Amino acid sequence: MPADINAAVEAGDLEVAAGPIIVGNNITRRFGGLTAVDVESIEIPRGKITALIGPNGAGKTTLFNLLTGFDRPDSGEWAFNGRSLAGVPAFRVARLGMVRTFQLTKVLAKLTVIENMRLGATAQRGERLWAAPFRALWSSQEQEITARADDLLARFKLDAKREDFAGSLSGGQRKLLEMARALMVDPELIMLDEPMAGVNPALKQSLLGHVKSLRDEGRTVLFVEHDMDMVRDISDWVIVMAQGQIVAQGTPTEVMADPKVIDAYLGAHHDADLSEVEQIVEAEVLEELGQTEGEQP
Ligand SMILES: Nc1ncnc2c1ncn2[C@@H]1O[C@H](COP(=O)(O)OP(=O)(O)OP(=O)(O)O)[C@@H](O)[C@H]1O
């Protein structure tokens, strides 16, 4: 059974000011005969950066979708700030203070950066805004939204790109825009889907700084990531999934040294990613060691 947050707090490995921001139990999601998510229990520490890692197909994205109301589970329950989110649709989850980032889709890529930002606010005010009977009220809300968008663009150094099409941004700038757009609703918990994917090394440090600053201003961050350097660098807590289940959790140092984690990765992720050359070299190394494939060196 994985270590839990309480044990880490008692051991002095994790400092948390209050109880977990998310608590979930018995969450399952099946696609036909495949159980994509089968999580007995999950807790996300408040005010910390938590990484959700695991090999391809482990169920990370499916769990993300379930928690944020973009998918329905076959069973299970979870609460955000003590409030059950069973059956709560995505837009309402966002209004409660829990948002996830989205990749720039084709449609969003054809909008400008500022238009993208303004769309981010609709989760907060959406239909009410358009139905507002008083023009003055409507326009003051509009101005407020634009002012917030401009502040965030300045913070993420995207102000010079304000009128550019989002599709013209680099991979790293897109990630910054995704983060900035999610902040339009001033979330308490922000969930980032692979924030480092497609980001060049020069922008990585800046992105890491932005993620840390989210925590430093009191938000909780939960992110899915394959980039282990990022996980090691910025996470306070790491949850490892394999085949739909949580197989380990703990501080980054603990988790990276856990044989279950190494197994999960070696079993399903790294092998699949090895190039032909790497496979030949690996076979030679194993031969050198007098072992056959499948045995642990
Ligand atoms: N809509 C769907 N219909 C059928 N199967 C699905 C669907 N979504 C996910 N799956 C399957 O569920 C399993 C978990 O997928 P998921 O995308 O959650 O994994 P992941 O850990 O996010 O993987 P990756 O790191 O590759 O993004 C996989 O076997 C996947 O093929």
TrEMBL record:
Residues 22-268 form the ABC transporter domain. Keywords: ATP-binding, Nucleotide-binding, Transport. GO terms for molecular function: ATP binding; ATP hydrolysis activity. SMART domains: AAA. One of its GO terms (cellular component) is plasma membrane. It holds the Pfam family ABC_tran. The keyword Ubl conjugation does not apply. The keyword ATP-binding applies. InterPro entries: AAA+_ATPase, ABC_AA/LPS_Transport, ABC_transporter-like_ATP-bd, ABC_transporter-like_CS, BCA_ABC_TP_C, P-loop_NTPase. This is ABC transporter ATP-binding protein.
